[in-house]
Specification:
Largest sheet: 5 strands, mixed
Number of domains: 4
Bound molecules: uridine 5'-triphosphate
Strand order of the largest sheet: 10-11-14-13-12
Distance between the termini: 80 Å
Helix content: 25-40%
Number of strands: 26
CATH topology of the largest domain: Poly(a)-polymerase, middle domain
Number of helices: 28
């Protein structure tokens, strides 16, 4: 039995179809029906219904017909308030009039003609009030475009340029998807406004930056600036006894309980969480995350089948979204490039952290890389942020949290680029540019449109320029970007490295994929459509990355390398100071310290023993047969004497130490005259135990029985040494499992600062080395940084 259209009786009580809510009995049903949420949705339904009454559906016009032309024609029947055009195909439009009587006037006319064509005009379809067109969003979820279908479509095109346009068409948000999102934002704003007068819900990110794909997240900002003003005004009035509570500010209103000017982020998050959970229809799985850089409330929406985020007062994100929109509007090549590169990066597992955080690039960072590249082509396709600032007029000036975010609001204010390169060439150019880019040694600055040397960012926090006036306390604390293997400065918040989360592994992977893509783009398979129906162009570029493969796309064996980027932030302050004052010599000083740490890692932490250099005798090596090598006794944790008596543990002497290499204390003994070349080092080690196997469990057990605070893997040298020791003690009769050579080199010209370690198994009959190397890939960079941080 149904009490009215919205309410249905169920075995468990009642169900309100409008709000998707169950109530157990009549009393709670009545309370629900009188409640804010139900009332609000009823009002919204009435509003929507009025909109439908005053709209018509039109088709039959020429595909290129503009909104203005449609508007001009229909204005003769009454004022037009909105026109929605089916942009993808340009086949139909919905014309919304300000008054319902205009639709009657249109429908009363027997024939409509535009540009010689007869139009089909009918009343707008009445749909059951729902938050969004359920089918379209659900269909997108059910039928996300398959790689097979995409590949097929791409192969049908005539050129890479067309393929890139096809990628946009295949992935972009559909009109109905966008409308659904808009409606949800509108609804949320209405709900939130009831509790927080004058607040705004503003979408940002891919839903609105023109780079969105079907089912992408809906990122929202709750802007409370006006609400704060409202509240402080209300408080003043209360004190003076004026305007007492005529509006919604009853005693039990949220605003009467929470002072927005002093509320903590946690209190605000709780409030948002409660409103989302209790008052927004269709929203579920609401969860607040306070641990992330920007506290956020996550939610899902049932009907739209999408996930969303709400952050509070994040006005910089709204502004940088406008910046991406502007870049996209400045040149028609930006969108196809960004879509193509986003999909490529996804296929190669370079971008798209599954749960927000993680060691991969986020899409924002990737988009900034594309923009930076387009600032650096010749002639540039996009201007630098500084240039854009100069093109803006006074009204467009904008400062947020002290950062200058000024740029023209419309593409019209920016002169078009003189660059005429096609998409195919530009895509190839992107890979060439980044395959050669010195990420660890540079900081990508879109503001200046050039790579800044990392040495500019090495000075201690106190020496860094103060953050701009008006910065919040967090920014003041941060006082500079977090440096890492990849450094991309946000175009506005110049203290934020948008790639600060990237791991060294991801950096290496990015470099490798750019090199492979660059190589592929030089081939005819990329440039020309196959006459024999084989895959060509983007199809091969999009081939998914095979996990764990050690072979590259062209089938060659990948070398066993680990690179360690220069990261000032992990070094002790005294060393940072020394490096920042030593000009170009900082590379070799750093490399020297790094070698010390590497040696300590193998010798003390992983307890490798020095091995003989294959084909040489102990005497030869000690006497200098170990070409270009010196003993290094400058290691940590008392390992120093070992290197002098064993053939292993050798390394070249760094330049800064070279002059004192014949030290009378015998601390270092020069074995080779070429020790003045400080960029290389070499060791031979043997490992007698499977120190990589079951390590986590051993660490857990060890920490359980000790009072020590836990540290992440590679975060504490004494814990790791004891873990190794425990593993070693379990084996009664150890034999050499693997012997290997490590060649280290500091690379990059100018400010380039990364060390590459090349591993070569010299004795690996039982085939253990791959496993050991796999472990080293993640363990070594972290452990070395921990050891470096301890160096004096
Ligand atoms: P995303 O990386 O999620 O980009 O950042 P996106 O374009 O929305 O892509 P997907 O489809 O959801 O993955 C979302 C927005 O968050 C802000 C930017 O406004 C960006 O558009 N953001 C992100 C920052 O301001 N800084 C960051 O470091 C990351």
């Amino acid at each position: 039995m149904e009490t009215n259209e919205d309410i249905k009786t169920t075995p468990r009580g009642f169900y309100c179809r409008l709000c998707s809510v169950h109530t157990p009995n009549q009393v709670s049903l009545e309370a629900h029906v009188k409640g804010k949420r139900h009332q609000h949705l009823c009002r919204l339904r009435t509003k929507r219904s009025a909109q439908v009454e005053s709209s018509i559906f039109v088709s039959g016009f020429k595909p290129a017909t503009s909104r203005t032309e449609l508007s001009e024609y229909f204005e003769q029947f009454g004022p037009v308030s909105e026109i929605i055009v089916d942009k993808d195909k340009g086949k139909y439009a919905i014309i919304e009039f300000s008054e319902a009587k205009s639709t009657q006037a249109v429908l009363a006319q027997l024939e409509h003609r535009m540009q010689g064509l007869k139009l089909r005009v009918k009343p707008r379809e009445k749909k059951e009030f729902r938050l969004a067109s359920k089918t379209s969003a659900a269909d997108a979820q059910k039928n996300p475009i398959s790689l097979e279908k995409l590949n097929y479509d791409l192969c049908q095109t005539a050129s890479v340029n067309e393929q890139m346009q096809k990628v946009v068409e295949s992935f972009q948000l559909s009109e109905s998807d966008r409308n659904g999102r808009e409606l949800l934002v509108e609804l949320m704003e209405e709900v939130f406004t009831e509790f927080l007068p004058d607040c705004q819900i503003i979408p940002f990110g891919s839903s609105v930056n023109t780079f969105g794909v079907q089912s992408c997240d809906l990122d929202l900002v709750l802007d409370l600036e006006h609400t704060k003003a409202f509240q402080s005004q209300a408080m003043k009035s209360e004190q003076t006894g004026e305007n007492q509570s005529e509006d919604g500010q009853s005693e039990d209103s949220i605003l009467s309980e929470l002072d927005l000017a002093t509320a903590t982020p946690a209190e605000l998050l709780d409030l948002v969480t409660a409103i989302l959970r209790k008052c927004v229809p269709g929203v579920h799985r609401v969860q607040s995350l306070r641990t992330v850089r920007l506290p956020v409330v996550k939610f899902s929406h049932r009907d739209l089948k999408l996930q969303g985020d709400i952050t509070i007062n994040n006005r910089l994100a709204v502004r940088n979204t406008r910046f991406l929109q502007l870049c996209s509007g400045l040149d028609s090549r930006v969108r196809p490039l960004v879509y193509t590169l986003r999909f490529w990066a996804k296929q190669k597992h370079l971008a798209g952290n599954p749960f927000g955080g993680g060691p991969l690039l986020n899409n924002y960072a990737l988009t900034l890389l594309v923009i930076f590249y387009l600032q650096n082509v010749n002639p540039p396709i996009l201007p630098t942020v500084e240039q854009l600032k100069d093109m803006a007029c006074e009204e467009e000036e904008c400062v947020i949290d002290g950062w200058d975010c000024t740029f023209p609001s419309q593409p019209l204010g920016v002169p078009p680029s003189k660059n005429t390169e096609d998409l195919c060439t530009l895509l190839h150019g992107f890979f060439t540019f980044y395959s050669k880019f010195d990420f660890p040694g540079s900081v990508v600055s879109l503001r200046e449109g050039r790579a800044l040397p990392i040495t500019d960012f090495l000075c201690k926090d106190e020496e860094k320029p103060d953050p701009p006036e008006g910065s919040d306390s967090k920014q003041k604390q941060a006082a500079g970007p977090k440096l890492g293997p990849v450094n991309i400065l946000d175009p506005f918040n110049l203290h934020h490295n948008v790639a600060g989360n990237l791991s060294e592994r991801t950096h290496r992977h990015l470099h490798r994929e750019c090199c492979e893509a660059e190589k592929y783009c030089r081939s005819l398979q990329y440039q020309r459509k196959s006459a024999k129906g084989k895959s060509w162009g983007l199809v091969r570029l999009f081939a998914p990355r095979v996990e764990g493969g050690t072979r590259s796309q062209d089938g060659t064996e990948r070398s066993l390398q680990i690179s360690i980027p220069f990261r000032a932030s992990v070094l002790p302050e005294s060393l940072r100071k020394k490096l920042s004052s030593s000009g170009n010599a900082f590379r070799v000083i750093w490399f020297g310290k790094l070698c010390t740490a590497i040696e300590a890692l193998f010798k003390d932490v992983l307890k490798c023993s020095p091995a003989e250099k294959p084909g040489s005798t102990l005497e030869q090596t000690q006497a200098g047969g170990g070409e270009e090598e010196v003993n290094n006794n400058d290691s940590l944790e008392g390992s120093s004497q070992q290197g002098a008596t064993h053939p292993g543990g050798k390394r070249r002497l760094p330049a800064e130490e070279g002059s004192s290499s014949t030290s009378s204390q015998g601390k270092r003994r020069r074995l080779d005259p070429s020790a003045g070349r400080p960029e290389k080092a070499c060791w031979f080690w043997a490992q007698r135990h499977m120190v990589w196997a079951g390590r986590r469990k051993v660490r857990r057990d060890l920490l359980k029985t000790s009072d020590e605070a836990s540290a992440p893997e590679g975060g504490c040298s004494s814990i790791e040494s004891r873990v190794t020791q425990c593993i070693i003690e379990k084996v009664a009769d150890p034999k050499d499992l693997v012997e290997f050579r490590v060649d280290a080199e500091v690379l990059g010209g100018g400010e380039s600062t990364k060390a590459v370690l090349k591993f070569t198994p010299t004795n690996d009959l039982a085939g253990y080395f791959q496993d050991f190397f796999h472990f080293l890939e993640s363990f070594l960079p972290k452990m070395v940084e921990t050891l470096l941080a301890k160096l004096e």
